[in-house]
From TrEMBL:
Membrane topology, record value: Multi-pass membrane protein
ABC3 transporter permease C-terminal domain ranges (all copies): 173-293
Main location: membrane
Keyword set, alphabetical order: Cell cycle, Cell division, Cell membrane, Membrane, Transmembrane, Transmembrane helix
Location in or out of the cell: Cell membrane
Pfam families: FtsX (PF02687)
TM helices/strands, residue ranges: 23-48, 166-189, 225-245, 265-287
Name of the protein: Cell division protein FtsX
Any coiled-coil regions, as ranges: none
Record organism: Sphingomonas canadensis
InterPro entries cross-referenced by the UniProt entry: ABC3_permease_C (IPR003838), FtsX (IPR004513)
Gene Ontology terms describing biological process: cell division
Amino acid sequence: MKLSLNPNAPDRRLLDEGRRTRAMTWIMSVMLFLTVLSGGLGLGMLAATAQLDRQLSGRLTVQIVEPDAAVRDRQARELVAALRSTAGVVRAAEVDRARLAELLKPWLGDTGLDPDLPMPAMIDVDVRGDAAVRATEEAARRIAPSARVDRHAQWLSPVRSFMATLTWLAGGLVLLMASATAAVVLLAARAGLDTHRDTIEVLHMLGSTDLQVARLFQRRIAIDTLLGGAIGAALALGLIWLLQSRFDALGSELMSGVALQQRDWFLLLLLPLSFALLATFAARVAVLRALAKTL
């Protein structure tokens, strides 16, 4: 028996179940909607984590706590000069005192602007490599014994851990949805076999093989998955684009790292096709096994 690809061919309509077929399409639409959202979350968090690592891996802040303003200013100047001549140090600059006072104003009020109030000197340092980090710490201890060196990556490590957890969670959700899709396909294939048992027996009497019958099921399920997946993926991609535009409007340097790149959009577009191939394979295996046991 020859199976035609024409959508109006008689063999194409053998498994057309009306409402059941439409229900399968909408189920796949919901599955792909949730899958693409999870994939978008995972890719966004992965990109944001990578950007956070790049930005913070070599960023340090040196804090000089010294009650004597003259000593503090001298130590800050000497330390900045020493760091600028240190190998591996890309940038070393003292934070503007007025800017620092403005940052402290929400906690100290107008008292933070009092010139008589002791205020630590803050030095921003960008370095390359662990050797430069150690050299910065040694220079700080030598020039200003009271100085404290803070690594940005260290105090932001809980944020990075949380973002990495979200990435793994999103990846797990994608795998879970793929497993659920395979399970739905298996149930749909078995239900279709029970519903069309008489039709399948007639096809066998006409000379059709199990493989040809399986092609009917796998094609029907592939079409439902592609159609439903396209609808669900389109809605999910639209929602992701809307959320990304909102993130861009926030103007946050951290949130801007969540933006998806061209490669990420391409991977998300591949999800409906990947799920259709998965559903086709699952339907083929389920039908062939069931036919081998029962018919």
